[in-house]
Amino acid sequence: AAGAGRGGGEHGGPPEGRAGAEGSALVSPKQPPGATAIACDIGEIQSTVKRGAVLTIKELSLVTPDCSRLLVQGLSLDVAQGQHLLIVGDSGTGKSSLLRAVAGLWTAGNGHVTRPPPGETFFLPQRPYCTLGTLREQLLYPKLPGGRVGALDVPDAELLAVLQKVRLPNLAKMVAGEEGGNGLDAVRDWTSMLSLGEQQRLAFGRLLVNRPSLAILDEASSALDLDSERAMYELLDEIPGLTYISVGHRPSLLNYHDSKLRLLSDHGFRLEKIEMDDAEAAMAPTSSLL
To answer: Where does the ABC transporter domain start and stop, copy by copy (predicted)?
Structure first.
């Protein structure tokens, strides 16, 4: 189970993290009363990459890159292996920024993040990056096909089976065309050829191929219908011990997570366990994660 520092809720500590300005290195003392400008000499978020680690966040504070706004303050969190954490909150509370900080893609702020090595961590953005290359390369990304340094050698039959699982059963056959073969070595501009929903399903296929220990999903199913979303998240169960953290707005996401971290508008946070009743109630027509 996850544990939170000042945002422990039922996991210990007060129910909400609070972002007090007094004594904070993030708030400039030179500002007039009531100002919330952020000092830009706060340093950077520190990271430790450790093989076998899951995810540990200690006293993490996030600011916008121009230091104009504090997003999250003082978040401490331990994520256990196999945990499925959903991050929710109003627009502008720093959900995607937090995911990027966890992935090592956001350094504006301070605090410390311990996470697995890059080869064990996989980040799925809302718009997946599709290279101009072969279908095989799209499935192996960010690894390279076999025969090169850092390559991943996956049998063709396994790659074709992954396409079936992510509901792209005819993609390889469609692009094979006059080139012959099974279509895996067909080169296309995949961003132009595939819809956003198809790109997102392809990205879930990458997860199955790369089999990381930590997956970070930023609105990764936003273009999918509810049935496809369910199918994609259920596929993640095929990766033993996978820990994943998602950001999303759909109430249906509660069904695929066991904990919820709510980011608050006052830079605080609240960690909650998701119960089955919560997931069922969230499917009501008027429900919302916000």
So the answer is: 57-290
